[in-house]
Amino acid sequence: GAGVSQSPSNKVTEKGKDVELRCDPISGHTALYWYRQSLGQGLEFLIYFQGNSAPDKSGLPSDRFSAERTGGSVSTLTIQRTQQEDSAVYLCASSLSLNTIYFGEGSWLTVV
Amino acid sequence: AQSVSQHNHHVILSEAASLELGCNYSYGGTVNLFWYVQYPGQHLQLLLKYFSGDPLVKGIKGFEAEFIKSKFSFNLRKPSVQWSDTAEYFCAVNIPGYSTLTFGKGTMLLVSP
């Protein structure tokens, strides 16, 4: 596609359930990033992929969070046993280099 | 760990007013600097960036930013704002050799017509 595609765009889940968020980066982009955007908190880095490997996963807030990337393309961010504080917009971005990072429109997660 | 500070969380201006949004970072070495904008209901997009060279950087839509190394600052400016500039603006910093950006908490700009 023309841009970074994320799904679902909106997800409401019950506390304790697992959720999966998907990111389809721009074709050919080797770098892929996950960020979390919370109200008043700006963008919080979660994890960075180069190809299928994750050289930097320092931002994952707990072991309930994991992510994978397959085929150097699609990435999935999984949150297990969701908590209310996980409610946020989860942004995916991709790039060839830091010169220009392209962001998706995000997945808005609400944990009730 | 590096940090990025954006001093104003909310700014309200009338059309044609001049804009300056502050951004300061904490890292003492060489940095790459960015401003991103998020219009209502849209995704983040790059406004401008500084890697090296002329510290006065011009971006899209009439925005510019000045890198002042001695002040660890990269303030965003626009001489005359328009209603369509209403958006949230994020400053971001990268340390060369690292592949991630550290963002500030953002400044919400509201321009009244």
For the terminal residues of chain A, how far apart are their CA atoms?
33 Å
* Rg on CA atoms of chain B, Å: 13 Å
Tell me the fraction of residues in β-strands of chain A, as a range: over 45%
For CATH, the homologous superfamily of chain B is named as: Immunoglobulins
Q: CATH topology of chain B, which one?
A: Immunoglobulin-like
Count all strands of chain B and give the number. 12
Biggest interface, chains and residues, is: A-B, 25 and 23 residues
Distance between the termini of chain B: 41 Å
SSE succession of chain A: EEEEEEEEEEE
Mean pLDDT of chain B: 94
CATH class of chain B equals Mainly Beta
How do the SSEs of chain B run, as a string of H and E? EEEEEEEEEEEE
TL;DR of this structure?
The complex is a heterodimer of chains A (112) and B (113). Chain A has strands at residues 5-7, 10-13, 19-24, 31-38, 42-50, 53-56, 65-69, 75-79, 88-95, 102-103, 107-111. Chain A has 112 residues and is an all-beta fold.
Outline the structure in words:
The complex is a heterodimer of chains A (112) and B (113). By secondary structure, chain A is mostly beta strands. Chain A has a single domain (5-10, 25-97), classed as Sandwich (Immunoglobulin-like). Chain A contains no helices and eleven strands. In chain A, strand 4 (31-38) and strand 5 form a beta hairpin. Chain A is globular. The relative contact order of chain A is 0.32. Chain B has 113 residues and is mostly beta strands. Chain B has a single domain (4-112), classed as Immunoglobulins (Immunoglobulin-like). Chain B is built from no helices and twelve strands. Chain B has strands at 4-5, 10-14, 19-21, 24-25, 32-38, 45-50, 56-58, 64-68, 73-78, 87-94, 102-103, 107-112. In chain B, strands 2, 5, 6, 10, 11 and 12 form a six-stranded mixed beta sheet that branches. In chain B, strands 3-9-8-7 form a four-stranded antiparallel beta sheet, with no helix packed on it. In chain B, strands 1-4 form a two-stranded antiparallel ribbon. In chain B, a hairpin with a 4-residue loop joins strand 8 (64-68) and strand 9.
